[in-house]
Amino acid sequence: MNIPIKNICCIGAGYVGGPTMTMMASKCPDLIFHVVDINKKRIESWNNKDLSKLPIFEPGLEELIAKTRNKNLFFSTNIKEAIESSEIIFISVNTPTKNKGLGAGKLSDLKYVEACAREVARYSKGYTIVVEKSTLPVRTAEVIKNILNSSESNSKREEISFDVLSNPEFLAEGTAIKDLDSPDRVLIGGDNKKAMIALSDIYKAWVPEEKILFTNIWSSELAKLTSNAFLAQRISSINSISAICEVTGADVREVSRAIGKDTRIGSKFLDSGPGFGGSCFKKDILNLVYLAEYFDLHDVASFWEGVVNINNWHQRRIAEIVIRKLFGTITGKKIIVLGFAFKANTNDTRESAAIRICQDLIEEGADLIIHDPKVSPDQIEKDLKIKQISETNTNPDSLLKSQIGQWKFSKNIDIFDDAHAILVLTEWEEYKHIEWQKASKKMVKPSWVFDSRSIVNAEEVIKSGLKLWRLGDGSKTKK
Ligand code: NAD
Ligand code: UGA
User: Fold this and answer.
1) Residues 228-242, buried b or exposed e (16+ Cβ, 10 A)?
2) pLDDT confidence of residue 150
């Protein structure tokens, strides 16, 4: 007999929980979705009438929210009520890397996941399917099962029982709605076929059955970490090749195109850039490294750690190139930074390459003007851990005297006056359409454009009299 499902709860209203439940609600109008979070401000933003004020920016999200919110999709802080009424509970909370204690710097901190499991144990009624949506270290399901089954309150309530499934999310930010609408696969790991079918029935409303994969729970957990590790590994691979291109006269775009034609390699995820960012690649690889070390697989651990090491090296390399090209000193020089988000079409800055690169440039004394169409100056301040220069402290003498540089946010992109360089760090569409002749006239001479995303119109930049450095472009940089 099928397990009847009517109410679904998702704990965690973040980049995954919010869009995923919105998509499910839009595809399953007969089911009710409750998205809950301890962060009151975040929930208020999800409920904001002004859809441009949702807590996250994702193309296509506003339209789906308009269709579903307060119909069969509800955002609230009432965790107890949502758990009590739901037959399926997704855990979609953050799983950051631990910064102290056992496994610090590598292992994910499971305190939020554990807190959720305890809440579920306390409030659930009857049989409940608990779904790991967060990305978790392998064998976390065991921890969740232990908490659910050993909770004191539960042992007193005989009618309570649980199944734990793993259903990792593969969406990428910036394309989340497209990815959720048409996923390459939906992965469901578990050991109770009935529970797995109940979960897959939700997806079957729009995902073709052959794309829904059933595995055991540990394979599902490990497949998620492996998937991110493979993707990140491709970026570190091509970024390492970009450095070779620059010294040999080769062009990394041509190399990518040539190798991508090999169907065994494939053409996706071969764009050299300023280094991968985002909240997950580094965290998930480090989890894999920890797992390998734990089982004494030290060569395996160092293989995967190399992917993160190359990424760190590559981000520092970009700041160093800027400094070297600007005659070895950038003290007091105005540098325009275009883009702070870790990729285009998101307001997320977690682990963005821009953080490390901007910090390095400021430390070397540069005066940065940072532009991003979706990231707020408050967020940049939190990330850089350096206060934005105030309007009252812009005396150029004081800037030159200070050892450390400073930064200022600009909403406007027309900010090229007296700049020594422009550094493109995020591939926002609008940066492709800059009028280089106009920009050049306003800049100090000689001045540079550093394009770490290969998006500017190279010919126009050069025609306008600016010097161009493109990541991985040995042919241009040798001139
Ligand atoms: P997030 O930080 O955007 O959101 C997590 C939310 O969980 C926060 O709003 C937080 O307040 C809430 N939360 C934490 N503890 C809670 C509790 N006890 N009760 C209720 N709410 C609680 O994180 P995210 O980016 O959505 O990522 C969530 C998980 O999904 C992570 O494990 C991540 O690795 C994984 N993931 C993320 C992405 C992505 O693109 N961001 C993609 C796939 C998988
Ligand atoms: C990534 C994965 O693509 C998702 O499948 C996964 O669900 C998610 O992580 C997660 O687990 O969090 P995301 O980090 O949102 O998604 O974005 P990506 O498109 O993967 O980009 C990650 C980083 O790699 C960005 O900084 C991006 O600019 C960079 N990148 C990507 C490149 O430098 N070159 C490329 O060719 C592709």
Assistant:
1) bbebbbbbbebbbbb
2) 83
